[in-house]
């Protein structure tokens, strides 16, 4: 019931990521799968929490893809300029850029 106590979707994703990095995720497989399933089905209705957040979008993208969910790469078009490069305003978002790199 570790993930059940967390309300914020970003905090849930960060907790799942931390559990995976520590090698403890196998203890919480059912909870992780249930949480990701809920996030996957509610992606459109809950998109507001990550709209301007490259870190949250990349983290969700990576975790869902790692667990076999189909997520279109078009979720990143908001963060691209007219030429197709990452917006220059995101150059200082190191956490977001690192997660984008990990997701690719």
From TrEMBL:
<dbReference type="InterPro" id="IPR008930">
    <property type="entry name" value="Terpenoid_cyclase/PrenylTrfase"/>
</dbReference>
<protein>
    <recommendedName>
        <fullName>Terpene synthase N-terminal domain-containing protein</fullName>
    </recommendedName>
</protein>
<dbReference type="GO" id="GO:0016114">
    <property type="term" value="P:terpenoid biosynthetic process"/>
</dbReference>
<keyword id="KW-0460">Magnesium</keyword>
<dbReference type="Pfam" id="PF01397">
    <property type="entry name" value="Terpene_synth"/>
</dbReference>
<dbReference type="GO" id="GO:0010333">
    <property type="term" value="F:terpene synthase activity"/>
</dbReference>
<feature type="domain" description="Terpene synthase N-terminal">
    <location>
        <begin position="7"/>
        <end position="104"/>
    </location>
</feature>
<dbReference type="InterPro" id="IPR050148">
    <property type="entry name" value="Terpene_synthase-like"/>
</dbReference>
<dbReference type="InterPro" id="IPR036965">
    <property type="entry name" value="Terpene_synth_N_sf"/>
</dbReference>
<dbReference type="InterPro" id="IPR001906">
    <property type="entry name" value="Terpene_synth_N"/>
</dbReference>
